[in-house]
Amino acid sequence: MKKTTVSWTVLLGVCFVMAMSFPAWGAKTIKIGVIGPMNFVQGKGHWNGAVMAMEKINARGGIQVGNKKMKIKLVKADSNEFLNVMDATNAMELILTRDKVDFIVGGFRSEAVLAMQDIAMDYKKIFIGCGAAHPKLCLRVAGDYKRYKYFFRGTPFNSRYLVKTCFIQMATVGAILKKVLNIPKVKVAIVAEKAMWVDPMIKAAQGFIPKMGMEVVGTWRPSAVATDVTAELSAVQRTGAHMIFTTFSSSVGIPFARQAGELEVPAVQVGINVEAQKDGFWKATQGMGNYVMTLNTYCRDVEANVLTKPFVETYIKRFGEVPTYTADTYAAIVYNLAPAIEQAGTLDADKLIPIMETREYLSPGGTVGYLKDAEGRHLHDLKWGPGYLTSLGVQWQDGKLKGVWPNRWKASKDAPAITYKGIVPYKIPPWVIKKYKK
Amino acid sequence: MGILGFYLRKLFNIVKREMLVLPSRIVVGLFFLVLLLLPVVTQDPYVLRILVLTSIFAILAASWDLLSGFTGQMNFGHALFFGVGAYTAALLNLHAHIPPWGSIPLGGLGAVLAGLIIGIPCLRLRGTYLALTTLAFPIILMGIVFAFSNITGGELGVSGLSRLSGSRLSDYYITVVVMLGLCTIMWKITDSNTGIIFHAIREDEVAVRAAGINTTRYKLLAFCLSGFFAGISGGLYAHFMRIAGPSTLEVSMSFTVVIWAIFGGIVTIYGPVGAVFILFPLLEFFRFWPEYRMLMFAVIVLLTLLYMPDGLFPWLRDKVETECPRCKIRNVATRKTCRVCTAPLD
Prior knowledge:
The complex is a heterodimer. Chain A is an alpha/beta fold. Chain A is built from 16 helices and 18 strands. Chain A has helices at residues 2-21, 23-26, 41-59, 85-97, 110-122, 136-143, 145-148, 159-181, 199-208, 230-239, 253-263, 281-284, 308-319, 329-344, 349-358, 430-436; strands spanning 30-36, 63-65, 68-70, 72-78, 103-106, 126-130, 151-155, 187-192, 215-220, 243-248, 268-273, 293-296, 361-363, 366-368, 370-372, 378-382, 392-397, 400-405. In chain A, the strands form six sheets. In chain A, strands 4-1-5-6-7 form a five-stranded parallel sheet, with helices on both faces. A four-stranded parallel sheet of chain A has the order 9-8-10-11, sandwiched between helices. In chain A, helix 3 (41-59) runs parallel beside helix 14 (329-344) and helix 14 packs across helix 15. By secondary structure, chain B is mainly alpha-helical. In chain B, helix 4 (79-95) packs antiparallel against helix 5 (100-122) and helix 4 packs across helix 11. Chain B is globular and about 65 Å long. The N and C termini of chain B lie far apart (47 Å). The model of chain B has no long low-confidence stretch (mean pLDDT 92).
């Protein structure tokens, strides 16, 4: 009797396990690894974007692969790459060998992405980089196509274009100052945080600003975590600078904007101020960060195309903030991977690559296309410029972050003028007008 | 056949009379065996990757112990040796096309040179002052790396290096065998006359000098030896990761080595090695709870050091072995009398 009970129990257990695992027999999912510094805002952007993509694709039944629909499953991997590059490579190997992901999106720190890139290439898995801007990542594709062809840049466009966009925005504001305030030669003060990544930008700015018909009056390098920058601001004020070219990725962006507002330093701020890209900037500067302008990817009410608004609004609704550029994992999955898989009818990376490298498609940030180098070799690097990705220039205007660039921007004399929907005119701070208006 | 039989008998006698008499020696023997036979059980690339990196850092941690533990030259900038080894190996491999078996030892020699360069100005310093000065050197080198970015690759580092070998399995055997070999050499050094002088310098440098020993020479030797082993680990790291970047010189790297060594128990060589083999895979294991990964790691290290201030392995060893009060030979804790001099063990 006891023996019979045990047998029945075992049989029932086996049936239960089989029933539970039955759905997995037929419906294989597409596994996408999302790798990034998950305890930092950049990694959170990676993950949030990917979650939105998964929800959108799975809601419509999945991706059509040949004659079956496959849903997406995300695998989160914390690369911890800001603190430890090795951790990033271990995480990459873990998701490739244990979780057996089919594709990977993410990565941020260039040194870590280079190391992760090698691992993804070893396993011949498509890796869409969504954070690192260094050109070398894509030069590797052209240099050794057979090995590195599995890497694509998803966001942002490479750092050379990033600098170029900053200079164009500076020139645009310079032209406005000249026109409105009748300033014959705009004086520019370069203020950049003490960080390695800024050094080449400063060198480029010092060389390029005079070529734009403006004058460099000095360079200041406050600490990236400085809480008081009045000394630098007083020095800038004494030089009679009309414009401050800022390069801040750290917390110094807040005290700098706040104290410049408090002192009413008669110079406009243009460049990169990562803190000013965040919703909390206005509160953090107690409203003194008014009129600060920075480079950005997304902004409320600004539409690069028809896909921008739905993406930004859904993101804000879902996560309570405007997406950062690393949230473009969404575009990488929804507009790059998914259509390519559907077109190829397979998950085979080698069959997807020819489709991915030649497709041009609309994404919330703009039209995505991939570059070739001068010799015609595939780079898998993003196209920049009118008709493609350009990014935005945004300015704080009375408590709201507004898009101010591109506004009737012409990339060349004959090129058509570009203005994104929702772009408003750039505003010069009243104390600057008061000081210089004749 | 006769010669083979002789050596087999000799090996058997050594194992029986020297190794099996003490639990710590049995554990070391098992450690060697497990590492060498592990691929028979699993060849999972992720597991092998973690063990390759663990082996590389075990060399680094042991080399810190050789300098700071044994000789007392507190080095808070050990990443310098690691970084110099990594960059030297990487640049030689990339530009001079020297294969890993040549570039890695040359990386070690590069680190010896770095050991001499920092050893000479540091000879006059002791304790906190020495620690703070050594801390500055990797930071200075990082500045140089960024200043000469056309050679060093700047923030990206030097990438595209030759692989250590053709497969993960051979990478594993290379690093494990090198680690076991180098750690044994380090242990033998500390057990030699030179090692005794290193000990003595740490305990009372003036007394050593009064005994007519040139302590300057020995301290420099410690810097160079430690630099060489750390440089080898840097070279192995560069070829395994196929990149040598500024992260190899980061302050966190220097402090991680110190944490490993203190956790395992300094002045032991085996302590830091064992600590790396526990802590490095443990940090990977904690990936299941990424938000609290570092916190859990810190709590374990803190609790261990709170209850085992001399480190984990000396604490464990003292639990299973006792030292004879007369002849200082170690015995199993269960013995009543010393296995050599038969003195009673209390």
